[in-house]
Amino acid sequence: MTTGGVTSVQNIRFARSADGVGIAYAVHGSGPPLVIDKSWLSHLQFDWQSPVWRHYLVELGRVATVIRYDERGYGMSDRDVSDHSLEARVADLEAVADDAGIERFALLAMAQGGPVAIEYAARHPERLTRLVFYGSFAGDQLATTPEDVELYETIGAMIRVGWSRPTSEFRRVFTKMMIPDGTEEQMRWIDDLQQVAVDVETAMLARSHRLVTDSSARLSELDLPTLVLHSRGDRAQPYQRGRDLAARISGARLVALESNNHIVLADEAAWPVFLQEVTQFLAPDRLSVAPTEVEDVASLLSPRERDILRLAAQGHDNNAIATELVLSVRTVERHFQNVYTKLGLQGRNARTAAVARLLARPSP
């Protein structure tokens, strides 16, 4: 059953990691595969109707087959786990990709999923089509100054004391870091997610492993299309971390989201920016999938962009197209640039390739 082109239910499955730990993952949507390493706080079932995450799941499911999973010790994955090392977490991602039966896919790393995605990309470049980082980083840094040590210990004490309490005063501190501009309903959901997703012992153990996890040395090895999105006012992961990622990955593109939230919410002006950037970035993967599996190329373009391509196919140059459509030549050029971006084309032959793809689409 589908609603608005999006599967209305998710298919939950289980993969077995290298050390035998069961990793829960969910599949929904249609189109080329997009694996999401959401990391840390997640619960596949609880997230499905979330007032914080639902818009991501719905909209990304319109352009891709979304495969997301709960990390070891979290959500619906096996809970009684002691190994939260980078090696184990990379093995979990490997297990999910293999169990899902996908040969090549785009990988979206959120927050603390960054180091895992970087390591996976360095080890398995042949498996990835492209890489997206959202509110993420290459590695945490150990506390070095007395102030850093004090802050680290204070946060640890808050987790130990407040995580399991029936009231949410302590958990609300973390919620405020993630969505400071959220509504009370959204904040209550994050408060609850913290308890639903993980117990206090696992949260503390995983946190200690993450503080010594750093994949920065691998960044120079990455050689695939990369998009980095990060909120300027992110309090959970400072914007500078996203900027550093983009600066150290060859050819990476950085998009600054005008938001204070670690998780951009549906009613923010930054949300359509995020969605457009990710949709356009994934467009080449959609075009590489058989026409029976996704909408044809025309569905990616606006009516005006299709008109311009059709005229180009008839041999019109930019001046003639501008005259025919009563536009300025500059506007026609801008439309062509938008087309090239959506179709993942560049260089001298981009115009010819765009026309060829439009003409090659199946007849209605």
From TrEMBL:
Organism superkingdom: Bacteria
PROSITE patterns: HTH_LUXR_1, HTH_LUXR_2
Coiled coil: none
Domain HTH luxR-type: 294-359
InterPro entries the record matches: AB_hydrolase, AB_hydrolase_1, AB_hydrolase_fold, Hydrolase_4, Sig_transdc_resp-reg_C-effctor, Tscrpt_reg_LuxR_C, WH-like_DNA-bd_sf
Signal peptide feature range: none
Protein name per UniProt: HTH luxR-type domain-containing protein
Organism: Microlunatus aurantiacus
Lineage, opening ranks: Bacteria, Bacillati, Actinomycetota, Actinomycetes, Propionibacteriales
